Amino acid sequence: MSGLGKLFGKGKKAKAPTPQEAIQKLHETETILVKKQEFLEEKIQQELQSAKKHGTKNKRAALQALKRKKRYEQQLAQIDGTLSTIEFQREALENATTNTEVLKTMSDAARAMKEAHQHMDIDKVDDLMAEITEQQDIAQQISDAISKPVGFGDDVDEDELLAELEEMEQEDLDKELLNVGETGPELPSVPSSRLPSVPASKVPSASLDEEDEEMKQLAAWVS
Where is this region: Disordered (predicted)? Predict the structure, then answer.
């Protein structure tokens, strides 16, 4: 087996890691690369300072420092690209893990719902709802019957009662009219005080003669 085959494990298929294990490995790789970044950035600053130090005094040393600085910058750029790839892969794996858990939960819920509906029949449910509705109607009828007043007929005709009331009022009116006709107009009462007498000298003689004649006729009629 070639060295590359041994390196990538082509000779024997290795067991695939779990998503959690793969995410953990990616986190560890990111940590190592970040430390390598910090190291390279420090080396770049050192070589830059060395090139400035030698400057025109020792051009050969200054050029060597700039060459090393250039290599460190290339390595740093490669690490930046690798970190971006690892970060993208880690996020994709985390999303895949989340989606897997969501799908598993939804699948479990679907199986639980199926188990719950296994003992249900839509026809039985319809029959049950119809029975409930029927019992509610019966309960309403019972409530109406209980709340109905006892001892008072609902079949009484109000028109007949109104006609009877009008007849009674007419009878009372007729009686009042009859009482008024029998008694007639009320005459003024006779005054109880005695009228003053008129002196004889002031009464005409003709009136006295008439009174005497009337008294005579009354006495003859009595006898």
Answer: 1-22, 170-223
Write the CB contacts of 201 (distance below 8 Å, at least 6 apart in sequence).
none
Q: What is the DSSP letter of 12?
A: S
Secondary element (H or E) of residue 135: helix 122-147
Give the C-alpha separation, 157 to 164, whole Å: 11
Q: Are 11 and 5 in contact (CB under 8 A)?
A: yes
CA distance 92 to 98: 10
| Chain CA centroid to CA 40, Å | 64
Whose CA is closest to 84, among 17, 136, 33, 28? 33
| Confidence (pLDDT) at 40 | 95
Question: What is the three-class DSSP state of 100?
Answer: helix
Q: CB count, 10 Å around CB of 72? A: 20
What is the C-alpha radius of gyration for the chain, rounded to an integer number of angstroms?
67
Contact 98, 19 (CB under 8 A): no
* DSSP state, residue 55: T
